[in-house]
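Cross-check.
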Amino acid sequence: MKNISMLRLLCIFLLAFSVHTTGKTVAPVKVKKAPLVLKMDTAQVNVRHFDSVALKTYSKQPEFQYQEDDGQSAPSWWTRFWRWFWNWLSDLFKPMKLGNHKYSQFVQVLLYILQYLAIGAGLGALVFLGLKMAGIDMLNIFRRKPMGANLPYQESLENIHDINFDDELERAVAQHNYRLAVRLLYLKCLKQLSDADLIKWQIDKTNSAYINELTNPDQRRVFKTLTLQFEYTWYGEFAIDATVFKNINALFMDFKKGIV
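Predicted model, tokenized:
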């Protein structure tokens, strides 16, 4: 029994020793690095130079002639005008300087509104003046009614073969209704062309159709001008005076001479 106990103690001692040895941390192994070595570039370098002949050739071409603005050349008068205009316009719309006056917020807003109203009125006056010089009456564009021509017949049912053009023209001129007189001149011209078998008149045919029916190039060109004069006066509702009507009447009389 004594030998068995000794054997057990020896086994326990050996087991404890093996466990103690196995639990120790193993230190890492240091690897010695190789020293760095500087490698030289042994590749051959070919040095390239600019071709002076080619550069001189390119410099003579207009595409490669660049001129830099040195800032010393004076701008043109057109550039100076627009520069002044935009500066003036920018200053015009800047809020007015009230200085050191202590106005209430309501008064300041009122002054700003009056400033922009004055600017708007000035610009509107300039636009109105320009349109007036161009012959456009802005006051009657939106309020005027179509000018009546006092037709003695219905326009949609007028028949050029039923109208006594001489009497109607005389009456229109006597009443200074030159706009109606121009219309009568044009209708009379259509009747003359129809009587000469140069066109085939129909009550619902357009003026462009009559122009295309004329085979003579000179007649077609002149009649096209007469048609534009008529449409400008009649459908454009432009009032004309005796002098303008006299010139238009002369054109129709000259055209009548060429109708065979």
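The radius of gyration is 51 Å. DSSP finds nine helices and no strands in the chain. Passed to J.P. for a second look.
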